[in-house]
Amino acid sequence: MRIPGALFAARGRAPQNEKEVPFQEILPLRLKNTVSGKADSGSDVACLQEMGVLFACLKDNEFVEKYCNKEINQFQKCYKFYMDRKFEAKKTVNQGVVQPGNNLNYKQLNKYMRRFPNPN
Amino acid sequence: MKMFRKQFVHLSRVSTHLQRNAIAPCIASPAAEMSTNVAPAAADTSSAATNEFRTGVTNPGEHSELHVAKFYTIPVEEKKQIFSGGGLPKQYEQQIKTFTEACLMVRSPALELLQYIKNADLTNPAVRYVLYGDNGVGKTLTMAHVLHYGALNEFLLVHVPWAPNWMKRPKEAANSASQEGFIDLPFDAAAWLVHFKTQNAKLLGKLQLKTSKEYVWSKRESTPAGAPLMELVEHGIARIKYASETTAALLAELKQLASARQCKIMVAIDGFNAFFHPITRIFSDNKQRVTPERITLTQPFLDITNYDWTNGVCVLSVDKIAMTEGYMASYMPRYLLGKDGFEHLDPFVPVHVGNYTDKEFLSYINYYLDRHWISRAQPGFEEQLKFMSNMNPYTLMQLVRGL
Amino acid sequence: MSMYPSHFAEPVIQKDSQAASRNELAHIPIKAATNDSSDSIFFGVLQNKLVKYITKKGNRSLANELLTETFEIIKRTQIERYNLSKSDREKIIIDAEKLLINAIENSRPLLQLSAIKRGGVKYQVPIPLTEKKSYFLAMKWLLDAAREKDRKVKLPEKLAWEILDAACGQGRVIKKKDDLHRQCESNRAYAHYRWS
């Protein structure tokens, strides 16, 4: 004969016995030995101020570049400087020389951590 | 080979562009100093006559060894008279327009030819001179030089600017009415008559030449004996249908008149070997290519280059590009004229036109620099040009275009 | 992509400048010189580049011929102008290569618009240009303007006009550049949207 569920409901559901539930390790319970490089790429926005100055000048002079030589030069210099720096940064990243210090990029960090991996 | 005589048509358009842009002569910015690196650029036209590459002697008759490799200017009037109907290559005409002067270089082949002509005994049968040489060495311009001499020395000019035009691209071909199986080129004949008229109008007016017999063209039209020669020419121009026959009649008359010492004649035919080419591009009624001797214009011009008359000179040129593909292996007269042509002309005086000599080459470079045509005069550019063009005049002209 | 490793040095084409860099390059591997460069009077770097852009279907010799013809027309026009003008003849440039360089310099843009999607909306964002790209655009515009022509007009002719126009700061190419600058200016509010 079946006992109706209402009889048990009064007492509430009995808690599970911890000892009887097996532990499953879905993700490893330790940090990875690598970090991703996504956050390092940074924003591409550069020379906003120079661009603003250039636009103001161009607008004042009816878009005749002759009169805005200074602004144009400054803008181009800025952009070139930015690109050069980006290029240099990428180069150093790719070289991946590990130096002591706390300001490491992802490649350096990866290299560093590969030397001291988490024990299995 | 077609590109060899490639014609540029954009000159007129360039000048319209010039007008369109007349407000903007500012094609210049920071580089006023660049024009100074072209050394002789500053020479203006007044001092031009004394330049080392120019000569003030404009009469070809007075040119001598002294003037070799120097430029002389053809006066505008004379150029108009002699060359308005052709005679200078198209690209040279263009160059003349750009440089605003018609300059010809005095070269040794022309001098040699002039020497022969000056010393020739005109009472003897007409001597045939044949100019020959590789492509683009200046055969036509040598002929132009001689023509200028002829025009100044009261020769009646019988000048065909480029004979292959008749065989290769006639304006119209029609069956001849008088000779069975022959082809007439009425428009080309009329054009030639116009050319003859412009070249010789002055001289014809002076000489008062008369026709020797009556020419009956049709029932109503005829030219009576004793009519001025000009009337004959006018008739040919006015009645294009009879232009070919008029040409034949005119040339026969001229031969007679010259032999009778009434005038001297200079025959100048460029691309003469076209008359002996195996075939033409003209089709007959039965859709077959015609040989040059089936064209009515051929016979009169062959007759006038014959030696059976006196008081005249014939300056002919044989040219590779007068031929068509497959017949252009050599530029030698015997090859180009073929057996028939060679026997027709034999004996003749061959005059070889060659590439520039060193002196002529440098003179030409100087001339280009003077006319600002070479604006990028880096050190040593002459050597490079010399090497690349092999001192061939036409190649040099082509190379210098983009400089 | 270069077929050479990055430590290979560029070849020095000009004979005169070879002596200067001889010591530096003595022990460095050098790339082979390309077959389109030469140390002759007919060679110009920008000119060479333009020939490559003119080329269609690999017919380089035709492109070369076209540019030569362009130069010829430019020279004819300028000489005609030179002969016509009585005063300030010094100011007129006849050198076609110089005019070409002037024209390209004049029509180089500073900025470019690029579409960037933000929140489902595409914004036209002004971004700065590298030097190389701006040269490319200038030449491309010159050629585009030259190719947009009547069928009867030849390319060298039209190209010559465009070069002459651009060299003195007018004409369609310059207008195109100005238009682009104007558009960039009106979209300047989006400038900070830029990201890689």
From TrEMBL, chain A:
Against InterPro entries, the record matches this protein to: Cys_alpha_HP_mot_SF, Ribosomal_mS37_met
Example GO BP: mitochondrial translation
This entry carries the following GO cellular component terms, namely: mitochondrial ribosome; nucleoplasm
- SUPFAM superfamilies recorded: Cysteine alpha-hairpin motif (SSF47072)
Molecular function per GO: RNA binding
The protein's name in its UniProt record: GH21543
Source organism per UniProt: Drosophila grimshawi
TrEMBL record, chain B:
Q: Which UniProt keywords apply?
A: Mitochondrion, Ribonucleoprotein, Ribosomal protein, Transit peptide
Q: Where in the cell is it found?
A: Mitochondrion
Q: Mind telling me which GO cellular component terms the entry cites?
A: mitochondrial small ribosomal subunit
Name the Gene Ontology biological process terms.
apoptotic process
Where does the secretion signal sit in this chain? none
A single Gene Ontology MF term assigned here is:
structural constituent of ribosome
Q: Is Chaperone tagged as a keyword? A: no
For this protein, the record's PANTHER family field holds: MITOCHONDRIAL 28S RIBOSOMAL PROTEIN S29, SMALL RIBOSOMAL SUBUNIT PROTEIN MS29
Instruction: Report the family membership.
Output: Belongs to the mitochondrion-specific ribosomal protein mS29 family.
Q: What is this protein called?
A: Small ribosomal subunit protein mS29
The lineage is: Eukaryota, Metazoa, Ecdysozoa, Arthropoda, Hexapoda
From TrEMBL, chain C:
Q: Which Gene3D superfamilies match?
A: Ribosomal protein S7 domain (1.10.455.10)
Q: Does the keyword Ribosomal protein apply?
A: yes
Q: Where is the signal peptide?
A: none
Keywords of this protein's UniProt record, alphabetized? Ribonucleoprotein, Ribosomal protein
For this record, the Gene Ontology CC terms, alphabetical, are: ribonucleoprotein complex; ribosome
- Any one GO BP annotation for this protein: translation
Q: Which Pfam families match?
A: Ribosomal_S7
Q: Does the keyword Ribonucleoprotein apply?
A: yes
Q: Which positions fall inside the Small ribosomal subunit protein uS7 domain? A: 39-188
Q: Which family does it belong to?
A: Belongs to the universal ribosomal protein uS7 family.
Q: What is this protein called?
A: GH13011
- The organism encoding this protein is Drosophila grimshawi
